[in-house]
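Protein 1 of 2
SEQ + STRUCT:
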Amino acid sequence: MSDEKAGTLPRDLTLYLLARFVLVGVIAWAMTLAGVPLLVALLIGLVVGLPLGLLLFRSLNARVTAGLAKRNEKRARARADLRAQLRGDAAGRSE
């Protein structure tokens, strides 16, 4: 199951980033329809859309965070094993 989670991390991260940028685009588009200049609408869309994305896409954010934590845990374990091997503490531990 942990390998399954790690395999979905790139997909979840891509979906999360795209969803947040689409939200910024929708906010900016709505503001340009209201007569706000494009650059100002994009800036306001960033300021409003990025925090709003944290609330709207909470479940997707949780999946990305869990996947990143799992990957970080594996890397820390591998790094600890390598350091132990280099010190000579665990001669046959990883085999």
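Protein 2 of 2
SEQ + STRUCT:
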Amino acid sequence: MRLVVLGGGESGVGTAILGKKKGYDVFVSDFGKIKENYKEVLTINGIAWEDEKHTEELILNADVVMKSPGIPEKAPVVKKLIEKGIPVISEIEFAIQFTDATTVGITGSNGKTTTTLLTYHLLKQGGLNVGLAGNIGKSFAWQVAENKHDIYVLELSSFQLDGIINYKPHIAILTNISPDHLDRYNYDYSLYINSKFRITKNQTEADYLIYDNEDDAIQNWLNKNSIKANKVPFSLTGKPEKDGGFIENNNINSTIKNEIFTMPINELALEGKHNIKNAMAATAVAQLLNIRKQTIRESLTNFQGVEHRLEKVLKIQGVQYINDSKATNVNSVFYALDSMSTPTVWIVGGVDKGNDYDELMPLVREKVKAIVCLGVDNTKIINAFNNVVDVMVETTSMSEAVQLAQRLAEKGDSVLLSPACASFDLFENYEDRGKQFKQAIYNL
């Protein structure tokens, strides 16, 4: 069997290693440049590879193709594979056939990284043999090749879900849905929503779907479509009929199979309404997997949070600097601005993914005193907020953006990097953007 892997990054190299171990004839092809450390791994493992090109005669003879999530369906080589009827799948779909581990699959437009790390933390503290993979950390396929975990907590993007045929998580979490990556879905929001719901499409009556019961897109889809999985909704305002999470007397509550878990909201390590929801989702998983209540409570209290997600960096001359580089869409920024309690200098911009800034208007009016645009093309942001804030400046480097923000901020203010956009115009990725932001603050 010939396995062709498109993309020589973390998921591609992990898939290649697993494929080789399982006896496939493996070839890795990347249209960009493969990083030196990955080239070394492929070479040591005797896996053929190429970069900066796709040689069609070496690709179109595949029995199965694993496409890395960053490669769009409309890439010419992918189109040709589909025309030839060659299966094009995701890393998750490829790897799952080689493990009998239980998986917890987590998706959503926002909050999935926090929820994934929090869920992993709860299960690990509970003594389970658990791995962390998907969109985060070491590739799932690589771990299946080298480790033996009983459970995997997987952060799944819509692109990874697009490439599944048979994969099903025993427990799925859908944190929320808001417009994102619309450039990959023909600017059709319903296609993106359907993509997120692929997480439950293969689930059975023995499985669970945990979801935000206050999310309009989720509610509308569930009203029109039936699912087999057991529903476990969570909400800040209502109470579930059966299983699910809710708030009562300033306590977070979660009922699973008639077992009620409860703890005061003010004891949660993470702040903000969105994080109460993330905690409810993670708690439901822990209960379903029989983690002791005391362990859940302790884990929710001592969780450290996520880098580049509302990360408090430093306070300088009474000004708090906050790194929210992971906020690559409007809905993420909504959460960030909603959690701000001081006048805010907002650093925003990058590669627009079809953003509609209207929903931010009330929050920007209320909380934002100045905007620093950080991107190659800021036209859309300027047109949206020109009449909303008094001060708007443009810049194309992080150090300059931070210096300008420092000048605009006064004691008691906050400087918030929450870009609402992808980072590829000026940075390698959102992590690079966040790290440059922190370095620029340390240099002030």
